[in-house]
Description:
Layout: H1 2-8, H2 11-39, H3 46-65, E1 71-75, E2 78-85, E3 94-100, H4 116-125, H5 129-140, E4 147-148, E5 156-157, E6 163-168, E7 171-181, E8 187-188, H6 191-208, E9 214-217, H7 232-247, E10 255-260, H8 262-265, H9 270-279
Parallel strand pairs: 2-10, 3-7, 3-9, 9-10
Antiparallel strand pairs: 1-2, 4-5, 6-7, 7-8
Protein name: Thoeris protein ThsA Macro domain-containing protein
Domain Thoeris protein ThsA Macro: 81-261
Transmembrane segments: 12-32, 44-63
Amino acid sequence: MSDLIHDLRTWRFWRWFLIQTFSAVGVLAVLLELTNFIFGSLPIEGWPLAIIIAVVSVGYGLVRAWPRPIRQDYNSPNTRIEIVKGDLFVQDCNIVVGTCDTFDTSVPNVISKNSVQGQALERLYGGDTDQLDRELAAALQGKAVTSTIHKPGKTEKYGVGAVATLRNGSHRLYFLAYSEMNEANEAQSTPDGIWRSLASLWEEVSQTANGTAVAVPVIGGGQSRLSQVMPAQDSIRFIVMSFMFASRTKKVCDQLRIVVHPREFDRLDRLEVQAFLSSMRPS
């Protein structure tokens, strides 16, 4: 209910509501004028007619503008994108976990316990760092080490855009390196780095997901230190555009699900996000 009230308070809702309401008034006026011209009179006139026009127009405006789940289906490519409020780790699909280019896992010495990666370690691996390290090492076999770095923790760098694909029951975990680690164990990224890493992610998903939906967290905060440059709403646009461009080259998956933390979701202009998804349909 609070989400609905939030949407009803936005200027976008009221603008769209008024546009649709007055559009209905215009159409009804034309139809009534045509009816009067053909038959010479109307069965209802005066205030009763005005009330009927008002009720029908307002009802039409509400139906057209009423907030709905944030999702969009596309025919070209044949896929769906939806934005959901909730917990990334309860999604029944493939999951993307952001990490740094050294694939460090030590919590809390290197990786924050509250980060998406820290939560993945605790909730999917029961805090067993050794098991996660073994699976990451196996997934990274054959991938080129781009350089080494002198610091506590892991020292081999695989570069921004490296993806380690792990099994998670019947689904997959995509550990995506979208930030670069420095000697002080500080991870940083750039919009360009995130764009390149997303391109690598979609390539990996298209080859391994077999069409299964993939859930992605909002990228740009936390370890990447881009929350001021790329707030949640801009990050969502960024992810959507990257996914759509990749999907127009070849199919990535049947559904992209962007999972937004409740605190961030409540700050979104959800009608604007829906309008953006709709704008991504081919003209």
